[in-house]
Design brief:
Blueprint (H helix, E strand, L loop, with lengths): L1 E6 L2 E10 L2 E11 L2 E3 L7 H7 L7 E3 L11 H7 L4 E4 L4 H5 L1 H4 L4 H6 L9 E2 L5 E3 L4 E6 L8 E5 L4 E5 L10 E2 L4 H12 L5 E4 L5 E2 L2 H23 L4 H8 L5 H5 L4 E2 H9 L5
Parallel strand pairs: 4-5, 5-6, 6-7, 11-13
Antiparallel strand pairs: 1-2, 2-3, 3-4, 8-9, 9-10, 10-11, 12-15, 13-14
Length: about 270
Amino acid sequence: MLKVSQYDTVTRFDLARTIAGRGRYWTSAYMVDGLMVDTGCAYTANDLLRALDGIPLAHIFNTHSHEDHIGANGPLQRERSTLDILAHPLALPILARPREMQPLHPYRRLYWGWPEPSSGKPASHHETIETEHHRFRVIHTPGHSPDHLCLYEPDRGWLFTGDLFVGGRERALRADYDIWQIIDSLKNVAGLLLNWIFPGSARVRENPKEDLDSKISYLEGFGGRVLELHEKGLGVNSIVRALCGKPMPVEWITLGHFSRRNLVLSYLRNRPE
């Protein structure tokens, strides 16, 4: 399933596998000035290729290597042999050998599927990616994954955030996320001059400073409460019950890989001195 929307010269593609007649767990890809930012999942690759038919592309930029952001890399590269794919150096082995390097949990296979292999080139922190009309700056923003990047166009105040910022207030987290790195990365981009943010899912936001500041404040405040209860001697399960509310459907869908407990544990791991 694919939906297309337009923001100035930025085209957004919302992509999801259709299950029981509905799109499930949408992700977003963007195209601007011959540059594609992410490519959705394997199940929606053909939809995206049809939508891009006849449209020139020079580069794909992957914000990170999760399967719902690299799914059409291989088919697009096979169709367009000169197409460059740019990603963090840590992402390149995963792009090249996704089945070997990134085993998928059952829920990830169900909703997003196995990407085809693709070949990429490294994009480094503060590197510039030039298109005909724009100069984009690469910003390393780890936390959601070690290889996570954002893409910033300073003249327009555009920030493509991947999964660093998708809105909402977390009550659960995936087991391999680092919440303190997420907070630091959000602070790094919050200091930029921003007019629009284009997230990897959820709505596009205009004048996003208040949204970013609110997200940072929420995550830091929640972390402060976790650490306070832990210092009082409460165990992880007790903190979960005190702060995270009732069990969530996502916890049983993911067999606990995405859970309230993982959120609390992430605050307790690698906490700042």
